[in-house]
């Protein structure tokens, strides 16, 4: 299994002296679906930002799609990130007053595609997440679960190899939360590598791998053998 991203002895110290990560080794292989769990303040979001190259480590190395991140300029790193990674943030980060479709199309802003094509793909991505009939709704006209699905559509519209989600179900009721997890499973079955931060033990237990963080260290990395349903197994 080739690595999508690999962290070697990564440490992250924030200005002010908080050491949020210490000596983290983590390899995420192509096609994996994993949970990142741990107490509040343990370094999960920091880890996701570094895996996603939104932030650089204070020490240690990050290799993304075979590129040593430290060797890349910010500009080249942004390009690499835009090509390979999609993010879903807990608070959605949708643009207010702009339709679901244009929010999703924004995920292709740096793709070089003309606007008409960006909008066409956005429509397809919204269909994919079950929101074909909410295309023209603006965020305040959508439910929380629907907003989260728009955010996921935006994250996957560029067909990233790696999808990183920070508490994608944190703000959702259990039905919406199930729908979002089902969507992530489907995207994974179609080939996306996915890492999900969650504080929901049931969700974490339902994923094939669990990375546990405490005080900035990986304290467990379990292959839970959680059922990847048989009909999804060989589909890649
Ligand atoms: N920009 C920052 N500057 C300084 N310290 C920070 C910054 N961001 C996070 N921290 C600190 O780093 C530690 C790890 O934060 P992080 O956001 O990664 O935790 P987390 O595991 O995601 O927590 P939660 O479950 O509450 O979201 C915390 O102690 C936090 O206070
Ligand atoms: Mg966090």
Automatic annotation (TrEMBL):
A single GO CC term, please?
Answer: plasma membrane
What are the record keywords, sorted?
Answer: ATP-binding, Nucleotide-binding, Transport
Where are the annotated coiled coils located?
none
Any single Pfam family the record assigns to this protein: ABC_tran
Q: Carries keyword Nucleotide-binding?
A: yes
Q: Which residues form the ABC transporter domain?
A: 5-230
Q: Does the keyword ATP-binding apply?
A: yes
In alphabetical order, the GO MF annotations are: ATP binding; ATP hydrolysis activity; transmembrane transporter activity
Among CDD domains, the record links this protein to:
ABC_MJ0796_LolCDE_FtsE
PANTHER family for this protein: ABC TRANSPORTER ABCH.1 (PTHR24220:SF86), IMPORT ATP-BINDING PROTEIN (PTHR24220)
Q: Which protein, by its recorded name, is this?
A: ABC transporter ATP-binding protein
> Can you name the source organism?
Kitasatospora xanthocidica
């Amino acid at each position: 299994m080739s690595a999508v991203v690999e962290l070697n002895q990564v440490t992250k110290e924030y200005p002010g002296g908080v050491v949020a990560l210490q000596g983290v080794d983590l390899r995420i292989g192509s096609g994996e679906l994993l949970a990142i769990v741990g107490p509040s303040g343990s370094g999960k979001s920091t880890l996701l930002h570094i895996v996603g190259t939104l932030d650089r480590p204070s020490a240690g190395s990050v290799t993304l799609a075979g590129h040593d991140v430290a060797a890349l300029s910010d500009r080249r790193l942004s390009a690499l990130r835009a090509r390979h990674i999609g993010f879903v943030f807990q608070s959605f980060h949708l643009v207010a007053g702009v339709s679901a479709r244009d929010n999703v199309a924004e995920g292709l802003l740096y793709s070089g595609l003309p606007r008409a094509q960006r909008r066409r793909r956005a429509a397809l991505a919204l269909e994919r997440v079950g929101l074909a009939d909410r295309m023209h709704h603006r965020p305040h006209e959508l439910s929380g679960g629907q907003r989260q699905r728009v955010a996921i559509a935006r994250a996957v519209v560029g067909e990233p190899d790696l999808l990183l989600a920070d508490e994608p179900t944190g703000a959702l009721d259990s039905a919406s939360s199930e729908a979002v997890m089902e969507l992530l499973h489907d995207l994974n079955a179609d080939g996306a590598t996915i890492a999900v931060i969650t504080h929901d033990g049931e969700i974490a237990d339902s994923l094939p791998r669990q990375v546990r963080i405490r005080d900035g260290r990986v304290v467990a990395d379990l292959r839970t053998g959680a059922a990847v349903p048989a009909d999804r197994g060989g589909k890649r």
